[in-house]
Amino acid sequence: SLSDKAMERIEFRAFCCLLLGVCLRPGSAFSIGLTCEANDSIYYIGEWYFLDSDHCTQCECTPEGAACARTECTTLPAACIHVSHYPSDCCPRCERIGCEYRGEVYELGQNFQPSECEQCTCEMDGIARCLVADCAPPPCVNPVYEKGKCCPECKEGPNCYVDTSRTQVIRAGDYVWVNPCTKCRCHDGQDVGYWEGNRVARCVRMQSCKVVKETP
User: Fold this and answer.
1) Which of 70, 90, 106 is the last residue of a domain?
2) Residue 183 in domain
């Protein structure tokens, strides 16, 4: 026997069809014997429903049986970084787009500086692309690294070590006599790239010069 709820639906549809002229399927829409079974439920001709096992599949109960069609989900944006998939939904939802870089999230088109030497942009494809500064070798032996600045600075100006002992420092262009016959000069670094690898003054021994040894 039909439940009271099922009888109410049949009576309501019959009323709509006979008195209002609104019938989903004239002649067979309210035949009690024609039903569809799904989701542990009974559906009548003309009813639509989603499958509990697949929320992307929607069916209509017809005299020939269930006619179903599956919804194809659209591709989520490439820049989607937060996807939610609710049990009642067919397709996943993109909750947020942007770029995720080192644990931080940035908006599309946003410029940001994750470190002193990096300049980055959150591109429209969700990828953060960065330019890293290439610091030139500092023209001194005692560069200073300051917070907030990428490249070191020579607070005392360009300079050199007098010799490989690295105990004495002289300014660029200056010279010093290390002994009566040897003069060492710190290059002035006018040539591009000259400071790279040149941290020691250039020493020249004077010709025909003899160092007189002190007698005890």
Assistant:
1) 70
2) yes
For residues 213 and 133, what is the distance between their CA atoms, to the nearest angstrom? 53
**Which residue, 135, 134, 154, 148, is CA-closest to 199?**
154
Q: Which residue has the tokens 């499958």?
A: 51
How many domains is the chain partitioned into structurally?
Answer: 3
Asked if 96 and 104 touch (Cβ cutoff 8 Å), the reply is no
Tokens of 99: 């770029």
Q: What is the pLDDT of residues 102-119, one digit of tens each?
A: 999 999 999 999 999 999
Chain centre to alpha carbon of residue 181: 63
The DSSP bridge partners found for residue 97 are 80
Instruction: Please indicate, yes or no, if residue 151 is contained in any of the structural domains.
Output: no
**Model-level pTM greater than 0.70?**
no
Q: How confident is the model at residue 200 (pLDDT cuts 50, 70, 90)?
A: confident
Using CA atoms, how far apart are residues 55 and 13, in angstroms rounded to an integer?
27
- The predicted-structure confidence for 125-177, as pLDDT tens digits, reads as follows 999 999 999 888 888 889 999 888 899 999 888 898 988 888 899 998 898 99
Structural domain that includes position 122: 80-132
Measured between alpha carbons, how far is residue 71 from residues 48, 50, 54, 62, 132 in Å?
A: 14, 11, 10, 19, 46
Domain final position from 20, 49, 70: 70
